[in-house]
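Example 4.3 (complexes with small molecules)
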Amino acid sequence: MQIRKAIESSKARIGVVGLGYVGLPLALEFARKFSVIGYEIDDRKREMLSSGKSYLDDVTSEVLAELLESSFTIAETPSDLKDCDVLIICVPTPVDSNGDPDLSYIRRSSEIAKEIAHRGMLIILESTSYPGTTEEFLGTAIKDAGLKPGVDVALAFSPERVDPGNTKYNIRNTPKVVGGVDRRSTEVAAALYSTIVEAGVISVNDCRTAEATKIVENIFRGVNIALINELALVFEKMNINTWDVVRAASTKPFAFLAHYPGPGVGGHCIPLDPLYLSFKARQYGIEPRFVELSREVNESMKRHTVELVTAALEAAQVSPRSATVAVMGLAYKKNISDTRESPSTGIIEMLSARVKDVVVHDPFAISITTSTRRYDSEPLAKVLESADCLVFITDHDEYTKLAPSDFAGKRVKAIVDTRNLFDGEEISRIGVEYRGIGK
Ligand SMILES: NC(=O)c1ccc[n+]([C@@H]2O[C@H](COP(=O)([O-])OP(=O)(O)OC[C@H]3O[C@@H](n4cnc5c(N)ncnc54)[C@H](O)[C@@H]3O)[C@@H](O)[C@H]2O)c1
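Answer. The structure with nicotinamide-adenine-dinucleotide bound is encoded below.
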């Protein structure tokens, strides 16, 4: 196959559709070795990228600008991708208002694939979806272009495992799973990723196995977080410190993997991806109960967090109705600015119905928008002076550096700690009420 030679000689031209958290770092990684053209539908993002400005925490504007001068181009229209030898699709896979997969982005990208598909090309889907998506959408697009998937156009799925904000693992040192519609497609896709992934490429039998692999990884995480969240609620009543329990259990050298309780799960993956499998499973007459149950338990942690806030305020003899509560952390996980599906949104909504004022702080995210309004992050010093209660949602490094002395002598009367950031006894010693999830 011609494409194989083009990959091995670094002459393959690579097109990436969707330049978000997944697509942009991937495009830039390939651009170190290949000529890459990226297409982003959002005008604002496209303009920023074209002028060398990154909107991602993990991509510096310096690296972007450097590659824009050499091997990376931003496409103006999808037809600019027509000369690509490889097309990689990294578009969103959200859910609709019923919690069912919203495949409109994949459908639209499949139209691009249909428009530019040509003999000898390789097309890869990276967006997370239920098993069968690659063949259902891209296989059909290739056929609609008058070509045969696997014969005329190699077609594969390769799940993305990027972990934004993770300073240890990146594209290069995270093994990549690849599955094609036939053996040749798998081999070509594996050859492509081997050029940038040093940790190795794992080839699986077909696209559906690769698609299922990604969904399993995220269901595994969602279910285990839910399990420890449920146990944390039990241990709170029993006055057992869940964090100490997990730390001790983690010393078992086999068959235990630490997961920690918290205010719920967020981001584009863990809360949503399992719903893609549920949707498909229902078509086979099966309701995956773990998926639904874990979602329910993880969701309930937001309400529990709000209950801890009112309990802490009451114990501090501050009426919730007259209290200002500061939500500390808007991002769904530490040291990034991404607020998608963040538990903070629901917590702010519930709190705003119970307390006088809600203010917010985040060292990375500048604001968060709930169903009713936008909340802008306020300076830390101002928040510490104005809030009766601080509820820590995200374990940003900036928060782990805070000490009881930072709260002493301020207005703060209560602290709710959903991430085990503080020693409760030390906080109580400065006269501030402390409540922690799982403690
Ligand atoms: N963010 C993560 O940590 C992560 C990790 C693993 C897998 N994933 C999966 O990867 C996929 C992409 O996620 P993401 O976080 O990068 O999403 P994102 O929203 O950050 O990026 C997707 C980009 O695609 C663009 N887009 C949408 N339709 C387009 C089209 N027709 N043409 C060109 N551009 C288009 C959007 O404007 C957006 O910028 C999802 O399926 C997600 O579940 C995400």
